[in-house]
Amino acid sequence: DAGVIQSPRHEVTEMGQEVTLRCKPISGHDYLFWYRQTMMRGLELLIYFNNNVPIDDSGMPEDRFSAKMPNASFSTLKIQPSEPRDSAVYFCASSILAGNTEAFFGQGTRLTVV
Amino acid sequence: QKEVEQNSGPLSVPEGAIASLNCTYSDRGSQSFFWYRQYSGKSPELIMSIYSNGDKEDGRFTAQLNKASQYVSLLIRDSQPSDSATYLCAVNRAKAGTALIFGKGTTLSVSS
What we know:
The structure holds two protein chains of two kinds. The N and C termini of chain A lie far apart (36 Å). Chain A is globular and about 35 Å long. Chain A is mainly beta. Chain A contains no helices and eleven strands. In chain A, a hairpin with a 3-residue loop joins strand 4 (31-38) and strand 5 (42-50). Chain B is an all-beta fold. Chain B has strands spanning 4-6, 11-14, 19-25, 33-38, 45-50, 54-58, 61-66, 71-76, 85-92, 100-102, 106-111. In chain B, strands 2, 4, 5, 9, 10 and 11 form a six-stranded mixed sheet that branches. Chain B has a five-stranded antiparallel sheet with strand order 1-3-8-7-6, with no helix packed on it. Chain B is globular. The model of chain B has no long low-confidence stretch (mean pLDDT 94). Classes of the chains: A mainly beta, B mainly beta. The A-B interface holds A 31, 33, 35, 41-43, 45, 48, 50, 55-56, 91, 97-108 and B 31-32, 34, 42-46, 49, 88, 90-93, 96-105.
């Protein structure tokens, strides 16, 4: 398996623009997680899905953030409108069983909002 | 109290020494514990998992768990410069089917 695939790897956008991050989990993994990593806050859980259904979105910072998982092989994280404080590395991860097994991470998307 | 706490470091050790990394967690019902390694600019990768009290050894790595004290540690024996990275402690919440919560990580620097 190719592992968790994220795109794009790097994104530079202007404040106020819409940003969409994409993720393809490992086939057969029922759980998909979106994390955000910054120096100040570390690796924060934003939202996670089980069998394409959002389970916990309490980590989503504001209404500007939204996530979808239309099928088992694709998820998006959208920020609209983007702000400079959204600059971070966004990781997608997937696992077979939620917190009881290893989560496999994608390569991440480095987002810079100017 | 934060859910998972780690000393941010940096922790500096000479090559060949033992590096000791520590982590405490707040949810007494947590059952699964993981150590991830993250090189600069890369994604986290799993190096150890531990589920029961005591020690678990894998090569140069030993994970230690003490649920009564809510404490997890990672020992790296014969440290190598290639071990220089940030080490993230991850813990699950007691509620079933929940995601891993990560500490902010400890940066380890091994000098040759």
